[in-house]
Design goal:
By secondary structure, the chain is α+β, with helices and mostly antiparallel strands. Helix content is about 25%, strand content about 35%. It has a six-stranded mixed beta sheet, with helices on both faces.
């Protein structure tokens, strides 16, 4: 089990302007299943300050922060990737192989696996400068470097800032997949609802006193709880605001179930078991679940390379059987019982 226990801490950058006051929070990960906790809150609520306190960059004025394991190893991925311009891309990726106390934690086989998993084979072998990499490539390279030392906790501070929508979704899908595969404990700072829905199991929402703007407690719960019954008003504004890009699943009267990705594009949906590939008998068409959070599942047409985003709560929890067919009709996935 991994845990972070914050008890009655107070902290301020300058006298008379506290950020936290008598603030307590406990975060736990039981077993080997990966877990992502989204750290959220309004602007200036202390999200990044909380990270600094956990990293021991800043120290609380009072109160305690204890962890299990004791003296854990943290990896940190900031808003903007920090890469070394004087080093090659490969040496940036392998940085911890040469970095003092972290040398012994560098895992060669894990490095090779992650390079492939993150789609960085061509990037790390490129003769380009790190300055020539795209934003998405830089963030994936930062994630690779952070994971290579097998940290006890992975901290990410708005890592998708500045990435376009498609690159952001690809990064989050891969992060979720790696979290599950390696049983990571991830703290993810964000103020974006969709990022939270795609990545988080749990939400910690830092609540400021309306008069003093001091954080004295956190609303904490599963992403499902925040979606269905936001615990504080400001979270309700964030989580319950209508999202026209994801519409409810509705029967269309013909035995099919339809979900709309956008206002004018409907995509029928179906389910396969996680990470299994199933085929339609008639068309020999492969499909795969590539990423799954508490709210959304991403499924992929392996042949065409097209992905669909569907609500996890609407999936049918069963294997495809001979009485169920799956085919493409006018660019739509059709699921027939």
């Amino acid at each position: 089990m991994k845990s972070i226990n914050i008890k009655n801490i107070s902290f301020s950058y300058k006298k008379g302007a506290p950020v936290f006051q008598n603030f307590s929070l406990q975060m736990m990960q039981e077993g080997k299943t990966g877990k992502v906790t989204a750290i959220m809150g309004s602007s200036g609520s202390g999200k990044s300050t909380l990270m600094k306190l956990l990293l021991n960059i800043e120290k609380p004025l009072s109160g305690t922060i204890s962890m299990d394991p004791v003296n854990p190893v943290f990896s940190y991925v900031p808003q903007e990737a920090v890469l070394f311009e004087h080093l090659s891309i490969k040496n940036n990726a392998r940085y911890f192989q040469f970095a003092g106390a972290f040398k012994r934690r560098f895992n060669e086989s894990l490095y090779e696996e992650l390079v492939k998993s993150l789609g960085l084979e061509e990037v790390v072998n490129s003769k380009k400068s790190v300055l020539e990499l795209s934003g998405g490539q830089k963030q994936r390279l930062s994630l690779l470097r952070a994971l290579i030392i097998e940290p006890d906790f992975l901290l990410l501070d708005e890592p998708c800032n500045g990435l376009d929508a498609e690159v952001k979704r690809s990064f989050l899908n891969k992060l979720r997949e790696i979290t599950q595969r390696y049983g990571l404990s991830v703290l993810y700072i964000t103020h974006h609802k969709l990022e939270t829905q795609l990545i988080a199991d749990e939400v910690v929402y830092l609540v400021q006193d309306k008069k003093t703007h001091v954080v004295n407690h956190a609303a904490q719960g599963s992403i499902i709880e925040f979606m269905e019954r936001p615990p504080v008003l400001e979270a309700a504004y964030l989580f319950r605001f209508p999202d026209v890009k994801v519409l409810p699943v509705k029967p269309d009267g013909t035995g099919k179930m339809i979900i709309a990705n956008t206002d004018d594009e409907a995509t029928e949906y179906w389910l396969v078991e996680d990470h299994n590939i199933q085929y339609d008998v008639d068309n020999g068409f492969p499909f795969k679940v590539v990423s799954k959070s508490a709210i959304y599942t991403v499924i992929k047409n392996e042949s065409a390379g097209v992905e669909w985003l569907i609500p996890s709560s609407k999936l049918i929890n069963a294997k495809l059987e001979s009485s169920i067919s799956l085919h493409i009709d006018k660019d739509k996935l059709i699921y027939n019982k």
